[in-house]
Design a protein that fits this description.
The chain is mainly alpha-helical. The chain is 81% helix and 0% strand. The longest helix is centred in the last third of the chain and has 38 residues.
Length: 138
């Protein structure tokens, strides 16, 4: 007779990966609606959002370290730019209180703008240094 532990591990490992991904997305989409219908309090929604943020940061760090083997935390700066944009435009302290989906798009575009600006300034500097190195090498 199989133990419960072996039974659960067999069920867990035999489920295909796309089904797990779909289940995670379904839970992530339905979790905020639980507060709307009064099934959970706002404390649980805030906890779920915070856990989701930490999961995204952990996956990004895992991707950076796993692919390159180097500890590079530059991508967190763009995450912070989006977070600060959302905080400033959603804060009643500054007189703004914009809808979530507008803030979601606005913070993404702001992080993208700073990323493109940083990329252009970095690429121009590196091309200039590459050109200087070629000139001085001759």
């Amino acid at each position: 007779m199989k133990s419960i532990k072996n039974f659960l591990s067999d069920i867990f490992w035999n489920v295909p990966l796309p089904m797990w991904i779909g289940l995670v997305f379904l839970i992530a989409l339905l979790f905020p609606l639980l507060n709307v219908f009064g099934l959970v309090g706002s404390v649980w929604v805030r906890l779920g959002v915070r856990v989701g943020i930490y999961v995204v940061l952990a996956l990004g760090l895992n991707l950076i370290i796993g692919e390159t083997g180097l500890l590079h935390l530059g991508y967190i700066a763009f995450f912070a730019i989006g977070a600060y944009t959302t905080a400033i435009f959603a804060s009643p302290r500054f007189g703004f209180h914009l809808p979530f989906w507008f803030l979601f798009l606005c913070s993404g575009f702001m992080a993208m703008f700073f990323g493109i600006f940083y990329w252009h300034s970095y690429s121009f500097n590196s091309l200039g240094k590459l050109g200087d190195g070629c000139i001085y090498a001759k």
